């Protein structure tokens, strides 16, 4: 059970973590969600285990067995407005927003602790439909082989919100999403 925060508790996020509530409008979210019904999502495999969540990559993907970045299909037209919006937020050309990983989290789906393998400077995630808790912890925060729970920082990702990982948050921290309570999609 989580400890209730008091008015005097402060949450410190790592350098390079940015959260933007209401990044998308309701109309933008609905347009994206209507597209997802027809996508050929697949369960990713971790070793021989099929994860409960389902994914689909555009632009680039990561082959976990060969541990390398692989070329994927181009970003579809429906993702181009999001590509433009992310590029504007990051103050970069939209041609630099080159990958989209769409993840479907059904009730009870999660993703364990990891640091994204792709060699990109920024990782941006957009949350759709359901809420999720995003947890962050420094890589290597151990005492006698055990993780220090006090080093874990978390935030609730609201529908239509976005977050960015860069600098320390991107390179020196792992992140995870515990089991979700309801259907949720993310575009990373």
Total of DSSP H or I helical runs spanning 4+ residues: 3
- The number of E-state strands comes to 16
What is the percent of helical residues? 10-25%
Order of helices and strands: EHEEEEEHEEEEEEEEHEE
Low-confidence stretches: 1-8
Reported for the largest beta sheet, the result is: 6 strands, antiparallel
Radius of gyration: 17 Å
Helix vs. strand class: alpha+beta
Physical arrangement of strands within the biggest beta sheet: 1-14-9-16-7-4
Mean pLDDT: 89
Strand content: 35-45%
Distance between the termini: 29 Å
Principal-axes shape call: globular
Polypeptide structure, described:
This protein has helices at 26-36, 80-90, 167-171; strands at 17-20, 45-46, 49-50, 54-58, 60-63, 68-71, 100-105, 111-114, 123-128, 132-138, 142-143, 146-147, 153-157, 162-165, 173-177, 184-187. It is globular and about 45 Å long. It is α+β, with helices and mostly antiparallel strands and 188 residues long. The protein starts with 16 loop residues before the first strand and ends with a strand. A 6-stranded antiparallel sheet has the order 1-14-9-16-7-4. It has a 4-stranded antiparallel sheet with strand order 8-15-10-13. Strands 2-3 form a two-stranded antiparallel sheet. The chain is built from 3 helices and 16 strands. Helices cover 14% and strands 35% of the residues.
